Amino acid sequence: MHFPKVTLIGVGLLGGSLGLALKQRRLAGRVEGYVRREASITECERLGVVDRATTDLLAAVRDADLVVLCTPLAQMRALAEQCAPALKPGALVTDVGSVKGSVVAELEPIFSQAGAQFIGSHPMAGAEKTGPAAARADLFEKAVCIVTPGAKTPAKLVKQMEEFWAAVGGRPLRLSPDQHDSLVARSSHLPHVVAAELANYVLSPAHPKEQPALCATGFRDTTRIAAGSPEMWRDIALANRKHLARALGVFIEDLQEFQRALEAGDTKAMDEFFETAKHRRDQWVGNGGSPE
Hints:
Layout: E1 3-9, H1 13-24, E2 28-34, H2 38-47, E3 52-54, H3 57-61, E4 66-69, H4 73-83, E5 92-95, H5 101-113, E6 117-118, E7 120-123, E8 144-148, H6 155-167, E9 171-174, H7 177-202, H8 217-222, H9 230-239, H10 241-264, H11 267-286
Parallel strand pairs: 1-2, 1-4, 2-3, 4-5, 5-6, 8-9
Antiparallel strand pairs: 7-8
Helix pairs in contact: 4-5, 7-10
């Protein structure tokens, strides 16, 4: 697989890592990046994450064979509308957003009318660090990369996108947009909300000043993802609010059940709670589910 020109709209952690992977694996003749600030041009080119960076969106996508939207979800529609007129006929367009239902529904018709082909993607390879300086060429190695075709997406396009993610080291998985959003609400979006609330509650200034000193490795590891971009996670939560609200409801009910067992001193129920959690996590790790 080889693309003469690939354009990355947004060159942060994911966009920069994709640029490095494309260059290292020689999957693109040249990689160009669209950035919002002039200062980012020098940084991206110095780090080598792209061959050329620009603040001119139309120039960035012109003649591109593959365009990848690597921006926060709330920016994608406006950027799609702005760049669509400059796309070459038949260009392949995808994204790396964490929510797929709204993205596919909004972007597919925009690019279709422009003569391009859009299919949603979501590489499960993020991190709490942001910016091109955090980019790594191996970020997608062994990462599950979800491809979410719409009802009318040609089979050939689906296969091409799956081959693309495999080419940068990922493990492609095909899901419908709604199925994707339901699953990541539990496995990705809910954990972030939980980590954020732990940080908010435990580190609240309302607690004694000694509290932070007693937050050790377990607290650090559990709240690591709370250091992610607030803007990005606000957009993700809002875009997937139907599925996330449902997951939160079930999660809260489970916590309340544990609270009742705790208050009642129900040893059997508490043993079952912790033993089930340990068994399920051990089984997940043993089956190769852990990316560690």
